[in-house]
Design a protein that fits this description.
Elements (H helix, E strand, L loop, with lengths): L1 E2 H5 L13 E6 L2 E7 L19 H17 L8 E13 L8 E12 L2 E10 L2 E14 L2 H4 L2
Antiparallel strand pairs: 1-2, 2-3, 3-5, 4-7, 5-6, 6-7
Length: 149
């Protein structure tokens, strides 16, 4: 449905922090994105040498970015907006994510009130839950000088 170039027009993230490769489903209150975890990810050099494991914090970030696409998709001036963490609740990590895995990230909008959103997120690999969390985010304004970069 959306490829990485289209995602880059919605999210301000860029390599190496853009952690969404494709959006495959999207409804007004639900979205599914994919992250292909490759051996050349920069974080694998140090996490962990000889036993590469995707850091849990980056799995949560990938979930938040998929949610960010959902939140920003219909925002007319989204190039001036940022989706910022407010809280991460109940994060659980259930399976290691390693090179060659494909994360399927499903995010559901639980509540939206003005500029604050609450979303549930689940990341799976081959149908097995890798991580889950409830994410609270706030839609904020990007400073004018940053938006032009």
């Amino acid at each position: 449905m959306l490829d990485v170039n289209q995602i880059s027009r919605i999210l301000p993230h860029r390599y190496p922090m853009l952690l969404v490769d494709r959006i495959v489903e999207m409804e007004p209150d639900r979205i599914v994105g994919l992250k292909n975890v490759t051996a050349n990810e920069p974080f694998f050099a140090g996490h962990f040498p000889g036993f590469p494991v995707m850091p849990g914090v980056l799995i949560v970030e990938a979930m938040a970015q998929v949610g960010g696409v959902l939140v920003l998709y219909d925002v007319p001036d989204r190039e001036r907006k940022l989706v910022l963490f407010g809280a991460i609740e109940g994060a659980k990590f259930r399976r290691l994510v390693v090179p060659g895995d494909q994360l399927r990230i499903e995010v559901k909008l639980l509540k939206k009130k003005a500029s604050v959103c609450k979303m549930s997120a689940v990341a799976t690999v081959d149908g097995a839950v890798a991580a889950e969390a409830v994410l609270l985010c706030k839609l904020g304004e990007m400073p004018l000088d940053a938006a032009s970069r």
